Amino acid sequence: MDVPKTIVSSSPHLHARSSTASIMWDVSIALAPAALWGVYVFGLRALAVLLVSIASSVLVEYLLNRFSKESTLADGSAFLTGLLIGMNMPPDAAFAVPVIASAFAMFVVKWTFGGLGANWINPALAGRVFVFFSFTGLMNTYRLPRTLGSVDALGSASMLTEMKLAIGEGTVGQLSSAGILASLDYPFTSFAGSVSSWFQEVLGITLSPYTVDAFFGNISGCIGEVSAFLLLAGAAYLFIRKVITWQIPVTFLATFSLLAWIFGGVRNGLGLFQGDFVLQLFSGGMILGAFFMATDMVTSPTTSKGMLIFGAGIGFFAFLLRYFGSLPESVSLAIIVMNIFVPTIDRYILPKRFGEVIVEPKKKEAKA
Amino acid sequence: MMMTNPFSRESFHRVLTTKEYHGMERLPTFSKGGVHPDDKKALSNNQAIQRLPVPSELVLPLSQHLGAPASPLKQKGDMVVAGEKIGKASSFISADVHCPVNGTITDLRKVVLANSVVTDAFVITPDASNPLGEWPEQPYDALSPEELLAIVKDMGVVGTGGATFPTHVKLSVPKGRTVDALVVNGVECEPYLTADHRLMLEETERVLRGIMIVAKITGPKRIIIGVENNKKDAIAMLRQEIARLGFPITVMALRVKYPQGDEKQLLKATIKREIPSGKLPLDVGAVVLNVGTSFAIYEAVAMRKPLIDRVVTISGEAMKEKKNLRVLLGSKVADLIAFAGGLDHEPDKFISGGPMMGFAFHDDQIPVIKGTSGILALDKEPSAKAPTTPCISCGRCVAACPMGLQPTKLYRLIEHREYERAMAMNLMDCKECGCCSYSCPAHLPLVHGMKLGKRLGRK
């Protein structure tokens, strides 16, 4: 019988041509511009931190692979976790810190729970939070970006920490966030200054130069989180590639903005509906968290409705922690808190079945 | 490990195609789930229907339809004439089988079909000098709906879309029920397939007359033909002919989305009704019918010609020539491939039907049956399977499922042999359309799991 040697398998015989690896590498590609910006503004020291993080994550994964006799390096998840940990490090972190964070993420959070797909909190976030609470001082020491001052200006606190401290000391009364920063003589770039005045003169919109700087990445902070603009560009790439969906980031940022707008001004003594949420959105780990951490597939709900609840929950906790917590750290903790709720959400929030609603009424109609 | 280059031509193309689908016109479609595979219809949609010459031997199975196999009326050595009934419907849900040619029955033996069903089949050697029968058109206007239905049953007509449900059962509207809408399925949502498309273009009038016969049998208040918008020429042709003939039929252009050709999705897209879980179209006052079936009904009623041939698409990258062939039932796949110039190169897979729900087969001696809509020879590239990786709960299968199920959870339950719990999560609603497996980045064989779970869970 002259029969070609063809494959017999179950349908479907076509595939969307995506794979776990393509998703992981896509996310890494999307993060690259923001990471490179971090290297540009914070110097080669930042690059070293990124490389140490990635190398240690991949190495730990490799050693665990040796132990469990499998090969998962090519799926890109270890590289991505390392990159995210590096981007969440201050540029002057001691090299031991990203190594410890990577080891904790890959070994404790991911491997002990069963590897890729089985972890219940985001490994990179868990690693970051672990070292944040272990080395709080080290993790809270930032340097000013090249665009704001000399590269050697060490020991600067982030914008959020400065604000928090000022409010905590009670030295400010009835000032907006930008007002507080201005009263502290916090620096801003001349570019931001001119954008701000252009908005004021041409459009009649008050836009603080600090918001402009935060948007473009001229603020102190962790290596990869400073440039909201480049992170959003990366997120746009992920939307086009259909790696992430809108539900989680949009509900997260919308809930946070709404709460920050309504209640955010209260701690400054300004009353309701006075919160400057725009500055808050572009500072700290907000954009990085919303588009790259909260959307982690493994630790977010599978249903569309579940994702909306998950996103709104993160927004709520991020607001609580950022405004009323004792540390400026908020987004990573908020995401982890909601990660814990994911199994519950997935259990009770089910998609609407096709043809489920009209079963009963139709029957009654037929009888009547 | 497979890695997708995001800057490749394919990736770019995919973005453009998606944009096109969601383009300016917001055509109706079903709301939940669905996927957008590359339709590949350009390979064969400009090929006019050709007749396959009578093969030297036909293998005609007795089970070509959903339900009980027909019982044989002839035996080895008998002479048969074209159109003669040689298999009789053995229960209510069953269908008659007719001989496609004049000839001799040389054997009655077991064969394996593409879907792995083992059934009895007549082996028929056609008469060399005069193999084909003749069916002149005759008037049918005076026939009553009951007489029409009896003819449809007698001519062995079944749904030609692939599910092969006996048509007379579908058209038997129980007393007290009324049909609100007759929805004709011209969607052909499976990639590669163009048989229905060509039929709508070339046999427009007969398809429409077939629809009017069904309308006479079922008495619907309105008649709709749903056609996906990637067949604009067919839509225009149908509208033109409807206007010329003055039939009360509406043609609805639908947004391209798989699996719109499923009757549940089609009714949602056209008349905005959801068939309740476990129910039939008649429960929402609708009758759904394929254009290929309407054509078969026309031939059955106007020519008294039984269902003995059908249009089959020959396509796939590994096929030398792509064709749409009018083929006698029982013709072997090898004859079809040979007529299309043979294979261009060795394919990765042979598929009977479409690539989303069709069956992979390895034996080119299997026959064409009433439900065979296409024979495809696919390359490794489109059907490539990356190694499976663990589920990362991305939720793409949940988003893609048109039935609102959670394939990832069902698959996990089936893997752990928890069939009853899977049944409780509505496993039986799954119709194996393939959207979940298609979109799974971990390349898990989700549909395979569902099929297994359904089979083992029923016990």
Overview of the structural elements:
The complex is a heterodimer of chains A (368) and B (459). By secondary structure, chain A is mainly alpha-helical. Chain A has 17 helices and no strands. The longest helix of chain A is centred in the N-terminal third of the chain and has 25 residues. Chain B is an alpha/beta fold. Among the domains of chain B are: 158 residues, NADH-ubiquinone oxidoreductase 51kDa subunit (Rossmann fold), CATH 3.40.50; 72 residues, no CATH class. Chain B has 15 helices and 17 strands. The radius of gyration of chain B is 22 Å and the shape is globular. The two termini of chain B are 38 Å apart. About 3% of the residues of chain B have low confidence. At the A-B interface, helix 1 of A face helix 1, strand 15, strand 16, helix 14 and helix 15 of B.
How much helix is in the residues of chain A?
55-70%
Helix content of chain B: 25-40%
Query: Averaged pLDDT of chain B, please?
Result: 91
Rg of chain A, Å, rounded: 23 Å
Please give the number of β-strands of chain B.
17
At CATH level 3, the topology of the domain at 145-302 in chain B is Rossmann fold
Sheet-strand content of chain B, in percent, reads: 15-25%
Helix/sheet category of chain A: mainly alpha
So what's the CATH class of the domain at 145-302 in chain B? Alpha Beta
Largest protein interface, residues of each chain: A-B, 54 and 76 residues
Low-pLDDT stretches of chain A: 358-368
Strand adjacency order, main sheet of chain B: 1-14-13-17-15-16
For the record, what is the CATH homologous superfamily label of the domain at 145-302 in chain B?
NADH-ubiquinone oxidoreductase 51kDa subunit
Shape of chain A: globular
Low-confidence stretches of chain B at least 5 residues in length (pLDDT < 50)?
Answer: 11-24
Described by the principal axes of the CA atoms, the overall outline of chain B is globular
Major β-sheet annotation of chain A: none
Radius of gyration of chain B: 22 Å
Count of helical regions of chain B: 15
